[in-house]
What does this fold into?
Amino acid sequence: MALDQSFVGRSYPPTEPPYEVGREKIREFAEAIGDANPVYTDAEAAKALGYPDVIAPPTFVFAITFKAAGQVIADPQLGLDYSRVVHGDQKFAYSRPVRAGDRLTVTSTIEAVKSLAGNDIVDIRGEVHDESGEHVVTAWTKLVARAAEEA
Amino acid sequence: MAAKVSFDEVEVGTELPAGAFPVTRATLVQYAGASGDFNPIHWNERFAREVGLPDVIAHGMFTMAEAARVVTDWAGDPGAVVEYGVRFTKPVVVPDDGEGAVIHVTGKVAAKLDDRCVRVDLTAMSAGQKVLGMSRAVVRLA
It folds into this structure.
């Protein structure tokens, strides 16, 4: 069944409470991707590059925006079959890197809803702001719910 | 920000040092924990096959993170990345054979932009297949 086009443009309230970015969480993520860059683990190395504390790898923020996108995915009115969802595209545009101590909120908006060859496609934009209201990063996520196999 | 590469010294076509990133089942379990993405297609072979996959596959975001390392290692400052996007074209299949898979990433400067930025086009391959499409990063250089 084709998804409801009226969802295009719908925004969801900013996530509450803010996600607090921890140094050890950044370290854990950097270790998981095998990246030994000291700017992720050593505050002095980060300061040498002009940052107030360790920064996170570029894709770290996805964990936060994807959780926020869960509001959209789980919206029963939208009717997306999550068991068939795969990640199609991902893009980020950064105003600055995410860093330890950030308290981040995400505002998710549905940018597009399409049905192509039985696949349902949803484009979600997540705007990430810090505690002072400044923009940190925007994440665009394309999710594809694959067509169910014919019986 | 303090990228260690100078915009003035970079030309279109400049190749970045390539990277080869191994991924095993243990890597995927570790990444699942760190990222919070516990989808069983990334660690449970029985489940992966039930949903039509050939085997356990790596998280797309893991592959995206590895491809980014070629850019951030080159630029010197991960915070110099202004934009980064990919299309997930093929899964990275990770067999349980003690060796797993390897993600091979190459990149080159495709365009010089305004504001001392360059666009880097990345190619990520695993088992002879292109696993990321339209993989591009915009980086602000020194």
Observations:
- The first helix of chain A runs from residue 23 to 32.
- Strands of chain A lie at 19-20, 85-94, 103-116, 119-129, 135-145.
- Chain A has a mean pLDDT of 93.
- DSSP finds three helices and five strands in chain A.
